[in-house]
């Protein structure tokens, strides 16, 4: 029965039950962590062959000694494998070091200091620079904006991507220079940008001539079902709309191989790539080619990437299923929360009654269950409705995950009944 339709007495009874359950939870002395979307050790083991590579065979397929300087754009075989997965011609892909976040950071800083292709002046010389931030979204995107004084305007995230009408209205403002978007299995909702939304983003007129979409395809191949959901072809759509320089496409192997020692990728128009390599050429003589080579051997083509990801799916899908089962079992009957059931990616996004997310996170913390701070998925860490909680099921063992989810459900019900009794 939904909480709304219960009598005050019934709510008091449920509240007392949850208080008891919560006391038991505190007694249990748990130390559980549902905070960051990290691969578990058994997922990392899938790529342990990397630790044996390249051995003494350190020349790449072109005969280059990977131990030495050079090769700014990265290993050609890897670019040939990942280009099609990113929807970018391999010659317009740059393979970088271990973090696509670092590329995104560079792109923003380069925009501020130098301007991008088509900028009338560096962004930093504008009175105000605005980025559109689909929310809930990835907290580290927002942290980059915060660090450099970029104004963030939240855009509501729907199941098929950001609210296109709102985006259209915003880009009529010339201060709007950029937009974050995770097109496939978004962090944290799992939403996938539809072809219609991608087409609208590609075609829409923007007041800023140098507007950029940061198309962060971190979860492009991270399916949780047998269906390999394709990502909209943003580069092609933008080219056909006459806005070929609009998208910056990002990806990495962080959640394919080793999260801390993977390979990142940047893809874009030929002009954007020339702009980018011109700037990074001052910052580095070249990427870690030894790491590129060992990745090229582990993942020789797109099919190898998909086969490798099937291994991740076998580990992750049961964990995501357990999250659904426990949420449904514990909260489904009370109509107090809604949550996403993603077909890929790393997160489940849970919405609890407005005004209770911070309380739920605090209760969980006191019971030894670490959750991402409430509001973390919103610009400046502020969820205007204080209702969203991001769940990251990948890292804990199944037993820990189940215990943490049961505990979380207790905290949600305790906070919801408290609120109803106030
Ligand atoms: N982009 C998104 C949407 C993410 O969720 C993450 C990690 O959680 C990253 C980027 C980080 O990627 P990388 O490890 O390549 O810096």
Automatic annotation (TrEMBL):
It comes from the Bacteria. CDD domains: AAT_like. InterPro entries: AspAT_Ic, PyrdxlP-dep_Trfase, PyrdxlP-dep_Trfase_major, PyrdxlP-dep_Trfase_small. One of its GO terms (molecular function) is transaminase activity. Keywords: Aminotransferase, Transferase. This is Aminotransferase class I/II-fold pyridoxal phosphate-dependent enzyme. It comes from Aeromicrobium halocynthiae. The lineage of its organism: Bacteria, Bacillati, Actinomycetota, Actinomycetes, Propionibacteriales.
